[in-house]
Design goal:
The protein is built from two helices and no strands. It has 93 residues and is mainly α. Helix 1 runs antiparallel to helix 2.
């Protein structure tokens, strides 16, 4: 019976993280946004529905600093918090 280990038999293939997994903010680029969001949660008994604006701002910071893949805010559940598009007054009939 051979118990020799052969480390070369398996090859590691890295893959992109699953959606919802993102790099740590090592340089604290979004710390102020995170702190504001966490403070909101604490002040509202961790009812995240009352902190959606802070959550949106935090995710925006993460996308701006390449700490997560850029996604439209509408796809992240913030459609109701988006500014309506500015329409040209001349284009109205």
């Amino acid at each position: 019976m051979s118990t020799a280990m052969n480390f070369g038999s398996k090859s590691f293939r890295p893959r992109a993280p699953d959606k919802g997994s993102f790099p740590l903010d090592h340089f604290g680029e979004c710390k102020a946004f995170k702190d504001k969001f966490m403070r909101c949660l604490k002040d509202n008994s961790f009812d995240n529905s009352k902190c959606r604006l802070q959550s949106k701002d935090y995710l925006g910071c993460r996308m701006d600093n390449q700490l997560m893949a850029r996604e439209p805010m509408e796809r992240l559940g913030f459609k109701d918090l988006m500014d309506p598009p500015i329409q040209d007054k001349e284009a109205k009939p």
